[in-house]
Design goal:
16 helices; mainly alpha
């Protein structure tokens, strides 16, 4: 039941993020929304750059640590997080001197990066203290605070700075709520021990985080290339809305599955033997592949309804033009970054992760630039980026194939059929009279796949 509650919390977080994007796109002028979107994407990149190595190291080491080591590792982890926050403020402030963005937007972007990184790190420690339900409540609370704060700022002042200030306030509230809800036990350690822990964290975490930074740079690169061609126009804002909107469902679903399943996979890999490790990894792969397939079908099927109801008129054409291609790109991007990387993470092949990520960035850059130079539409450029990402997936499959944690392909095919059925709903008229029926069909199809796969593991198979 706790797993079901955790997934409900993650999907609420996803829904709140989607509502936030649409709300801000309505409340801000197109040029301000473009600046808001770019600043927020940049802050996410900085957050990953400075804190992802600790997230990955904490998840990998804390999940497998013995009872006597957990409190010590938490102390070292939080100390490293505070050091990363200080470094980010200093380096970011110096780098901002060469930026053309307004000073207020730069300062708020740095603040958001620091607050999000520290909050995510604390929420991770709560989750790995066997408090999955508490962590889920905290995530939902923060999502609500982010939505309320950003929308209020945009509605009151109508500027990108006000909306970003609301985002920073939401992360602050989330961190304070986490500190009140649960104080994770800590054990103060000598400096020498802490530095030894940092070496272990950095040896694995920094390379793995470097791969995450490079993967995160790919959508930012696409944004720069395509918005650079379109400019701060309605079409540019429509593409930015698609890029912001459609990454959230995949990102949140991936985070939910990893939060619920990955600690168990790590523990089985370290302590459970080969057969048990392969079984838990196989279930996780099934979970990732089948749910993201159904999600892709849902996004394609309901893009026309979302556009009609929520997208501003000035951005509508650009959104409709690019949204299906962006959804397909994020489907592939998620599996390259998350699913294909599971076995290298387990085996601590961090250098391989960096090479794969760099290969994706280089191939996407080459293909999308060539597409834009050839005069292709933004949709064509995104399709080229998808082809480059698919090619990278095929090249990077080696460790996963050798691990032999193969999913049940009959289940994957059922999920594919379900995705096609749900995606075909996009051809049905978008009038409100049809919407309830489309939602019912999509919901029933999703429940069938969830039951067939037993993805919430309410009745775990032996």
């Amino acid at each position: 039941m706790t797993r079901l509650f955790a997934f409900a919390g993650y999907f609420y977080q996803s829904a709140a993020a989607i509502v936030l994007i649409f709300a801000i796109s309505h409340l801000l002028p197109a040029a301000d929304y473009t600046n808001f979107s770019f600043a927020l994407a940049s802050s996410q990149l900085l957050c990953v750059l400075m804190f992802e190595w600790l997230q990955l190291a904490g998840l990998r080491f804390l999940a497998a640590a013995g009872a006597n080591d957990v409190a010590r590792l938490r102390w070292s982890l939080f100390a490293a997080g505070l050091s990363s926050a200080g470094a980010l403020v200093v380096i970011g402030s110096c780098a901002s001197l060469t930026s053309g963005l307004p000073t207020g937007i730069i300062a708020l972007g740095l603040a958001i990066s620091v607050l999000q990184g520290l909050t995510d790190l604390y929420f991770l420690s709560v989750r790995l203290s066997d408090r999955l339900g508490t962590a889920s409540i905290l995530l939902a609370l923060r999502a609500t605070a982010l939505l309320t704060g950003a929308a209020s700022g945009a509605a009151i002042a109508g500027t990108a700075e006000a909306a970003l200030l609301g985002i920073a306030s939401g992360h602050t509230l989330g961190l304070l709520a986490g500190l009140v809800a649960y104080r994770t036990p800590l054990e103060r350690v000598p400096l020498r021990t802490m530095l030894a822990d940092w070496r272990d964290f950095s040896r694995y975490g920094m390379l793995a985080a470097g791969a995450s930074v490079i993967h995160l740079s790919v959508p930012v690169l696409l944004r720069v290339i395509i918005v650079g061609r379109l400019g701060a126009t309605g079409a540019g804002a429509g593409f930015s809305i698609a890029l912001d909107l459609l990454q959230r469902p995949f990102w949140v679903l991936n985070a939910a599955i990893h939060t619920v399943s990955y600690p168990e996979v790590v523990n089985d890999f370290e302590h459970g033997g080969v057969a048990k490790s392969v079984q838990s990894a196989r279930r996780m792969f099934e979970f990732m592949i089948c749910t993201t397939l159904v999600l892709l079908g849902g996004l394609v099927g309901f893009i026309p309804d979302a556009a009609r109801i929520l997208v501003p008129q000035a951005s509508l054409e650009g959104f409709r033009e690019t949204a299906p291609a962006v959804a397909a790109f994020y489907f592939l991007h998620t599996h390259l970054q998350a699913t294909i990387a599971v076995v290298p993470h387990l085996e601590k092949l961090a250098t391989r992760l960096v090479i794969v990520a760099a290969g994706q960035l280089a191939s996407v850059a080459a293909c999308s630039l060539a597409a834009v130079s050839a005069g292709l539409s933004p949709r064509g450029a995104v399709n080229c980026a998808s082809v480059a990402t698919l090619a990278t997936i095929l090249v990077a499959l080696g460790p996963t194939l050798r691990f032999e944690a193969f999913p049940r392909w009959s289940l994957v095919m059922q999920a594919l059929v379900a995705a096609i059925v749900i995606g075909s709903l996009g051809a049905i008229p978008t009038e409100p009279a049809w919407l309830a029926g489309k939602i019912a069909i999509a919901a029933v199809t999703t429940v069938i796949i969830g039951w067939r796969g037993d993805f919430l593991m309410l009745a775990r198979r032996s």
